UniProtKB/TrEMBL annotation:
Taxonomic superkingdom: Eukaryota
Domain N-acetyltransferase as annotated: residue spans: 6-164
Gene3D superfamilies cross-referenced by the UniProt entry: 3.40.630.30
Pfam family, one: Acetyltransf_1
InterPro entries cross-referenced by the UniProt entry: Acyl_CoA_acyltransferase (IPR016181), Diverse_Substrate_AcTransf (IPR051016), GNAT_dom (IPR000182)
Listed name of the protein: CSON009701 protein
Membership in a protein family: Belongs to the acetyltransferase family.
An example molecular function term from Gene Ontology annotations: N-acetyltransferase activity
Entry keyword Lyase: no
Length: 165
């Protein structure tokens, strides 16, 4: 695959059907529960229906075919201010080891810097060695190891339980 055929750009509405398919591929790769998200959800949440966008996304094409995406959203750090959380980065297996992931990370990072973000955060499954090596190779710090930070989550059921007690 030639690097000249690789295009990284902001995701457009018509790309979201491909993004949803790749989200499904990522879920299968991670042996995770199926998503309840629909194409209409992604279109709305990306701000294409006039609503405030909840995320932004970059899209990778190689030889005119969709091969990857990122999804990220803003957060706020009381230590450092505006920050960005990388929710997903996915590259199709056939396009891996061709610089697609690095180019997607560069586009996302450049956007974060342009938007005045102080940092880019992400989480990764402990078992995903390939991703851990990728992020480490780009200079990411594993805050669980270096600072003892742990990642917690309240799912919908847990949030409802908080309201009951």
């Amino acid at each position: 695959m030639s690097e000249q055929s690789l295009i990284i750009r902001k995701t457009e509405q018509d790309d979201l059907k491909h993004v949803l398919a790749m989200i499904q591929e990522l879920i299968e790769y991670q042996n995770a529960e199926p998503t309840s998200l629909t194409l209409d959800d992604l279109i709305r949440d990306a701000g294409f229906t006039g609503s405030h966008p909840l995320f932004f996304s970059f899209f990778a094409e190689m030889n005119g075919q969709p091969v990857g995406y990122t999804i990220a959203f803003y957060s706020y750090s009381t230590w450092e201010g505006k920050s960005l959380i990388l929710e997903d980065i996915y590259v199709k297996p056939t396009a891996r080891k061709h610089g697609v992931g690095r180019k997607l990370m560069q586009a996302t990072t450049e956007y974060a810097i342009q938007q005045g973000c102080s940092r880019l955060d992400l989480h990764v499954l402990q078992s995903n060695e390939m991703a851990r090596k990728f992020y480490g190779g780009l200079g990411a710090k594993n805050l669980t190891e270096t600072e003892g930070w742990l990642y917690y989550n309240f799912g919908k059921r847990e949030m409802e339980n908080i309201l009951k007690n």
